[in-house]
Write a structure and sequence with these properties.
- By secondary structure, this protein is an alpha/beta fold.
- The protein has 9 helices and 11 strands.
- Strands 7-8-9-10-6-2-1-11 form an 8-stranded mixed sheet. A 3-stranded mixed sheet has the order 4-3-5.
- It is globular and about 55 Å long.
- The N and C termini lie far apart (48 Å).
- It is an enzyme of class 2 (transferase).
Length: 282
């Protein structure tokens, strides 16, 4: 599947939580994507695009909570004004705030559609959205970044986005965060301090990333001009329509509410267990 195949003559449910997401618990976003995966997977929903932005939040991975002094690190983050949550999927800590744009593409899983295909697809979409980027948008692991991965997106060696995937009940969700405004280095510094406090140099089940804040950036910094969340929304919708997609504004359907309640309960339960273990390691 390429971008043309993904969008041409395809109808997509468009769910915009770029404003309303500031008012609700970020754990709901993970439950929503699981809900939509199940709906798309069973064939009761068209493919979905969902944009989401949240108030200042640190999203930890399960491994982060297993650091020997995770409780101290979490306490420091909360004292800095961050909500701390633990997500129900893999990966390490990331920062969410009003300047981070999150986008989920959710479609029916195809057995021939590999994990790498999902990453390549979103990478291609981002290159189409930003044809005027001040350099080539590359995909490789940016050493020194937070939540490093093979599909870190960068321009001139500066990471501004990361991609993840989740597949459940026949649906696939490919999710990307884009640092749009403010300082990428300042966000990275928050997580650098967290890992320093949470590990205190002692051995752990995994080696936390050695964060070098200067390798992180935002689109505003990279473009050298102001860029807002609404600018990215406009570019996104214009691009997918130009590629042949039909967009239907939507929201959570009434019949999806019981499923969402179930997934949200699971997400919250897993979050609570992870936080409990992190704050009571013995």
């Amino acid at each position: 599947m390429n971008v043309k195949e993904m969008f041409l003559n395809q109808t997509w449910r468009w769910i915009d939580h770029s404003s309303s997401g500031l008012q609700f618990n970020p754990l709901q976003s993970f439950a929503l994507d699981d809900t939509f995966c199940a709906s798309v997977g069973e064939g009761s929903s068209a493919s979905i695009m969902r944009a989401w932005v949240h108030s200042p939040t640190i999203v930890l991975g399960i491994q982060d909570t297993r650091l020997p002094y995770a409780a101290d690190g979490i306490q420091d983050l909360e004292e800095e004004g961050y909500r701390v949550i633990v997500r129900n999927s893999g990966g390490l800590a990331v920062v969410l705030d009003e300047g981070i744009f999150n986008l989920s593409f959710i479609f029916k899983e195809n057995k021939k559609f590999s994990i790498h295909s999902g990453y390549d697809l979103i990478w291609e979409v981002i290159r189409l959205i930003f044809p005027d980027a001040p350099g080539t948008i590359e995909a490789y692991e940016v050493r020194g970044s937070y939540c490093p991965g093979d599909y870190d997106l960068s321009i001139n060696g500066k990471k501004f986005a990361g991609i993840s995937q989740r597949r459940i009940r026949g649906g696939a969700a490919v999710q990307i965060y884009l640092a749009v405004t403010d300082s990428g280095a300042e966000r990275a510094e928050v997580l650098r301090r967290f890992y320093k406090t949470a590990s205190k140099g002692e051995g752990a089940r995994f080696t936390p990333p050695q964060i070098e804040p200067q390798v992180m950036s935002s689109l505003t910094e990279l473009f050298g001009e102001g860029m807002e969340i609404n600018d990215v929304l406009y570019r996104l919708l214009t691009t997918v329509k130009n590629e042949g997609a039909m967009i239907e504004p939507s929201s959570l359907h009434q019949e999806e509410l019981p499923r969402f309640d179930s997934f949200f309960h699971r997400v919250v339960e897993r979050h609570n267990k992870a936080i409990e273990k992190g704050t009571n390691p013995k």
